[in-house]
Design brief:
heterotrimer; A alpha/beta (332); B alpha/beta (265); C alpha+beta (382); B: 265 residues; alpha/beta; Rossmann fold; 7-stranded parallel beta sheet; 3-stranded antiparallel beta sheet; 7 helices; C: 382 residues; alpha+beta; Butyryl-Coa Dehydrogenase, subunit A, domain 1; Butyryl-CoA Dehydrogenase, subunit A, domain 2; Butyryl-CoA Dehydrogenase, subunit A, domain 3; 3 domains; 4-stranded antiparallel beta sheet; 10 helices; 15% strand; globular
Chain lengths: 332, 265, 382
Amino acid sequence: MTPSILVVGERLSGHLTSATREAVGVALGLAGPEGSVVGFLAGSSLALSVTEFGELGVTRIRTREDPRLDAAGAGAIAVSVVASAEAVSASVIVTGGTEFGRDLTGRLAVRWNAAAANGVTEATWADASALRVRRPVYGGRATETRRLTGPRIAIAIRPHAFAEPTAGAATATTEPDSGPEIPDPLLAARRSEVAAAGSSAGPALSDASIVVSGGRGVRDANGFRLVEELAASLGAAVGASRAVTDAGWRPSSFQVGQTGKAVSPQLYIAVGISGAIQHIVGMVSSRVIVAINNDSTAPIFRVADYGIVGDLFQIVPALTKEIRRVRGLPAN
Amino acid sequence: MEIAVLIKPVPEAETRLRARADGTQLDAEGVKFVLAGYDESAIEQALLLREATPGSKVRALAFGPAPRTEEVLRAALALGVDEATWVESPAEGADDPGIVARALAFALARVPHELLLGGKQAGDDEEGLVTAAIAESLGIVDFGTVVNLRVDSATGSLTFQRATEEGVESWTAPLPCAIALQQAWNDPRTAKLPNILKSRKMPIAKIPWAEVSAALGEAARPRSVAERFELPPARTGAKMIEYKSPEEAAETLVRILREEAKVFP
Amino acid sequence: MPDFSLTPEQESLRDLARKFARTEMAPHAAECDKAGRFPEEIYRRGWELGLMNLNVPTEYGGSGLSVMDQCLIVEELAQGCGGMTTSIIANCLALEPIILGGTAEQRAQWLTPFCAEYHLASFCLTEPGGGSDAGALKTRARKEGDHYVLDGEKCFITNAPHASLYTVFATIDPQLGHKGITAFIVPRDTRGVAPGKDEDKMGHRASSTSTVHFEGVRVPVANRLGAEGEGFSIAMRTLDQTRTPIGALATGIGQAALDHAAKYALGRRSFGKPIAEHQAIQIKLANMVQSIRAARLLTWQAAVTIDRGERGSLESAIAKCFASDAAMRVADDAIQIFGGYGYMKEYPVEKLLRDAKLTQIYEGANEIQRIVISKELLRAYA
């Protein structure tokens, strides 16, 4: 088999995102020894990420230099992606499953007339032209395996589900994509400003690899600070149950759950959260779950891997202190 | 403003998931299907925009089998949506997102729409793929993770914000446009009893699957097929950490996370 | 009614009530119970959603629901809080005399403005000297020209301190016994109407209950419901309609107790396993669910019978009596399953026992229900 796989790169502050790196790993796996992986970048000031692609083993990069594409949305970029995919006879397009990647994959389903799937956690060839993928469904409470039939397949991979390939030394060459003109309607939206995120103390909830969440057990807005201190010690994102956001102790953007965000970090620490199903649905696909609650019968202990029954006002500060010690951080 | 809201029936959150006997899909027997939480937010957003822009209409569309799809459309009518269209799927449902998107795009051709609102369905994680695909069919831009959606009545364009890794972005987009709401940031209203009763008598336009599949032609054949549906191995319950002091609990947990769970650097 | 499944419309009604109960009633139940607080904001919200005035025909602005549909809603509300449910459905009890006994003009004149805004109403039958023995009531109604003058005292009246309307049963002549009883519509702001202080009750503490004094209350003849002497019949026919939903209320309290107990039994461990794996608990849970399911089905049977147009006295008496006794047993078992925690007010089950108790007493004490049941039963064999 000599499949040609196109990896669409996404950048943050000029660098390839970790999701793109993971996508490269998937693409290399699908290409196998006989196939090829081609990278794709759009926007301006692409040089740094071209180099980074090269270091990951992707030595041929299709580029669409156009500053309008730095903040244009997936629809505009899809035009070029399809042109490049055709140019390299790609059979699969892989993108990191960030919001951009999921959006792009949806657009490719129609523009490239491809079989498509988002949130992919495993991808292997079922036969010469069909891909078998696995993805979490129903808020991560189940997993489905799907067969995607070629000749064109577009997937967005779930962030943190795959390892990044080790970087080596290889140079990448670029091929400009002159592709079709991007239709005006796809460029009509304007980004007027980017304000620094309010409390940018930690990573964004949806992509963080560690999340610490607090629930009603923290008692009030002030008590929630213990949760934030624990998160800071871990470099983790901060989440909350609906009880917390409904009570106004933290904004609704913190909410993890059925009507909040769904997260699937490597580690989820639930502090003072009882474990109502509406919350569980948002975090149950986390790899490891730790629950701290003073009620031994709280339902959270049924989904957690490790539990501590006790007073969170004692346990959490002790945990924060221990983590800071172990990580060599100053005591406070 | 003509607002179209795309909704879908999903199993309610409390459902105990089970695989069908052939192991390929969810066993829908006895499952209660409801309007997804995100769809309630999308409808709420649409109704708020209608209230802010007099003369607007809100229409709900859903693709799926009987009877669950009709029921969620009735729930949408009970909330105050003006009209509802049921795009029929094959009886066993259709979960190839490409087909879903094309079927809805086909239906949208006969429904006025300037703003498309779709919800990310936490119930089944299509993760915005369908909304983006529909936007592509219609040749319009689409955005996700949108908050603070407003209409600038002077220009008729949309303003909104998105939270990304780089910060909070402020955007302006002309209509037509598709928005996938990924977070329930508004407080969806509850349908009142008299409206629930009224909604049962309101008409729902139906586009039969025969018509949809004829229009889709080749594209009606699934290219994404479910092969297996698996539940994770039952979590047997937390391993409880015994301790004599909070410090000991902390030490034990950190050690376990490093050595046993291998999650902690 | 061999098919026990609900129509999609009934499921929507039930789901609305369930959502309101879970998200707006239950979170405040413990606090209102502890403080004896009347949560007016919750009642207003219930009215906004159409959950009050369930029995009032839609032409007057009510929800116009069948008894069966009312039962579906009431059971869900009761799972949120029994006391709040009592106050929510008290309007149904108070307005039923107007629906049954009023002329078309009276119905339009009183029901339409009442339902158009948030209002509470109270049904005034019970007196300090007579509860079950309603026929012996003493409140007097003296005819004076085109008015009646009411004098007397009612007690244990739900919502009385907050009601804007009372339906009052008084006698025009004590010598006539129950044939003298006459029904009247009395607006709260009529001179001489004095609701008392909120009683400090064992349960249903979110519901407000008090005496109402009537001192020289002048009520126009136009406010009389039905003929003189028809009041007792109106009262009994009213209770025929409202008795069955009380069965649903009791069922709801019992279901809540069962839910708490079953979940607790799966989590709480003793002797190395969840207590749900001990036979003593399993047998209790089995008895509890049998009682609740039986209560529900008896309630449904009574509701369907009444909706068919029959009087349903036997069925509704059985439903109310059985369901209230069941709720007491189930709440008691639930506390036992919780053990020491069940005895603590911090846990939700002891409230359920206190709430269940009232359902055996009000809306026709269970002793009276049993007498009715036996009378109706024997009629079939006579």
